[in-house]
Amino acid sequence: MALALDRGTRLSHLSRAATKGAVALRGGAVTGYRPLAVRKTSVDELIDVDQRLTRLVYAYVATATVWLVVGTLVGAYLALKFVWPDLGVAQWLSFGRLRPVHTNIVFWGWASPAMLALALWVVPRTSQRRLHSIRLAAASLAL
Length: 143
Fold this sequence. Notes:
Layout: H1 16-20, H2 51-83, H3 95-127, H4 134-142
Helix pairs in contact: 2-3, 2-4
């Protein structure tokens, strides 16, 4: 049901508190009352981020990069197995055993630390709050 209002129409059926922050539907203006609005910060305000957190994010990125290289090498070997099926005759070098190794390395070794690094980088900057514990983030990297 569409509600069309003219400039002179009064909203008697709505409470005064409900209409304080509302924009009139036709030709109205925004009032100053905005209960859910958050003060926007200017670009000039610097975000105070701990240097330990920055080093930890770099450690996450370095770990993800190492696992990406390892996963890519395993994937390249598997691609070569399609061209030359008799490339590695050892049983542990078969496609059926290395395919799960490749997918797990790429997902758990590269994508997970990379996404955690992104979260550790973005969350303190967008929320302008410090993390509760950098030690817990370092412990999750060690695991």
